[in-house]
Design goal:
The chain is of the alpha+beta class and 476 residues long. It is built from 7 helices and 26 strands. β15 (156-163) and β16 (170-172) form a beta hairpin. It is rod-shaped, with a radius of gyration of 61 Å.
Length: 476
């Protein structure tokens, strides 16, 4: 007895009596491992050691705490057949032998044994039990089997998780956990067990899994793929660029050919006009019995016609060819107008380099100076044609007459103004310059008209200035 309480071990638990009255009881409902109590001993701490069919129960009656010694803490069997205590040791008999232990060690709180891993199947194949497994990416299914050595024949709950896949604990009553189609990566399997009394085992962390990446996820494959992709992108980009440039070039060639066709058509419009005027001059000489002048004029005209037909086939000619052509044309006009008009034809000696311009460009403007500016003037007229180098990148051609001017010419219904002028020759020149500049030739051509006035503000002629602006300088 302890504290005047008589303790009885029965097949329905442990009961304490005082003065024939039940004052305290212990059974499976308040901590005993089994109600069938066979043996009873008191230690020096007034704690009761009770042998049952489920191990030894050590009861602190003051605190109502029950500690259990069983298979999980080293007994060879949970069935207790005898029990004896001295001051420091405890002797416990079981069907599998007698063990002794230090009482103080038995009273210390110790965790239960961890769950034991029994086997691992990978893709349906048994494996040797290891702490770590490495599998190819296609071998990504496994079944992990385990068992608890701490508990037997009890209601057990297993708690498990696979770190790397999920960090949350899951519960099961099964001892086999399957995993299918695991992605590539590193995993660690953890598991522990609890019984219906809330006892918990240590966590088993023995199993590690590594699923290798497929070859298309490995660094060398990614680098090769990037190189191939970059090469493909570069090839496609190059192909697109070449096709774009080819289409652009074809378009430019088409525009250029179209412009050249228009220019040649405009030249063709000019040629009959000039020929008609020249033949009229020859007819005039014959009708006035100036046969020698007519023959001289006809000879120069034949040479001029040959140059016209030759140049009309070309898109551009050199500036010097244009100058020589104009010189021949002006000789014809001298014969035609005789003493009525003086002509000054000046060429700058600096014009040494060849510059390509549209053929027969300037002649229609000189013809209109004769026809509309000087022809209607009373008295003798003067025409100046000058080519000079203004800057290293600019050449000027100046056609200046001292005729009646554009206002007076308008009275004869033959206006010189570009927007009013009905002559196809001037319009042709304007259109040819526009088309020429659109083709982005090495030079850009502009034509300016200046009305000349005397000191009294009266019209005293017209000046036409051609500016040949070299985009790339041909002159140092």
């Amino acid at each position: 007895s302890i504290n005047n309480i008589l303790w009885l071990a029965t097949n329905q638990g442990l009961h304490g009596l005082r003065d024939d009255k039940l004052v305290q009881s212990f059974n499976t409902e308040n901590g005993l491992s089994n109600d069938n109590c066979n043996y009873l001993q008191f230690d020096k701490h007034n704690q009761i050691w009770v042998g049952t069919h489920q191990g030894v129960n050590i009861i602190n009656t003051q605190k109502g705490i029950v500690s259990i010694i069983d298979l999980s803490t080293g007994l060879p069997s949970n069935r207790i057949t005898s029990l004896s205590l001295n001051d420091t040791q405890a002797w416990v008999g079981t069907p599998r032998g007698v063990v002794y232990l230090q009482q103080e060690d038995a009273l210390e709180s110790k965790p239960l044994f961890p769950v034991s891993i029994m086997g691992i199947e990978i893709n349906g194949n048994d494996t040797i039990l290891l702490n770590s497994y490495t599998s190819d990416y296609q071998d990504n299914s496994c079944v992990i089997s385990f068992v608890s050595p701490s508990f037997s024949n009890e209601n057990l709950t297993y708690h498990y998780r696979l770190l790397g896949l999920n960090s949350n604990w899951r519960t099961t009553n099964s001892t086999n956990i399957p995993y299918t189609s695991l992605p590539s990566g590193s995993y660690q399997f953890e598991v522990y067990v609890t019984n219906d009394k809330g006892m918990k085992s240590l966590v088993n962390k023995d199993v590690k899994l590594v699923i290798l990446k497929p070859f298309w996820q490995k660094w060398w494959f990614i680098i090769i793929s990037l190189i191939i992709s970059m090469g493909a992108v570069a090839s496609i980009s190059s192909l697109i660029t070449r096709n774009y440039r080819r289409r652009k070039e074809e378009k430019m060639n088409f525009q250029r050919e179209l412009s050249e066709s228009k220019i040649k058509a405009l030249q063709a419009q000019m040629n009959p006009h000039f020929i008609f005027n020249a033949l009229n001059a020859i007819q005039f000489f014959f009708t006035t019995n100036s046969k020698e002048l007519a023959m001289l004029h006809l000879n120069k005209f034949a040479k001029l016609i040959r140059l016209i037909f030759e140049y009309s086939k070309e898109t551009t000619i050199s500036l010097h060819q244009e100058i020589d052509f104009l010189n021949l044309y002006l000789e014809l006009e001298k014969l035609r107008f005789d003493k009525k008009i003086d002509i000054e034809y000046t060429i700058d000696e600096k014009l040494e380099k060849e510059v390509a311009i549209p053929p027969l460009l300037i002649q229609p403007i000189i013809e209109n100076a004769f026809k509309h500016g000087l022809l209607h003037k009373e008295g003798k007229g003067l025409l100046k044609v000058t080519f000079k180098q203004k800057t290293p990148s600019k050449i000027l051609c100046i056609i200046e007459d001292d005729g009646v001017g554009r206002v007076a010419a308008k009275a004869y219904r033959k206006s010189w103004a570009i927007e009013e002028y009905r002559s196809s020759g001037v319009n042709t020149v304007i259109e040819r310059i526009k088309l020429f500049n659109q083709n982005k030739n090495p030079i850009e051509i502009a034509m300016n008209i200046v009305d000349l006035e005397d000191e009294n503000g009266l019209a005293c002629g017209t000046k036409i200035v051609f500016v040949f602006d070299l985009r790339d300088s041909f002159f140092e």
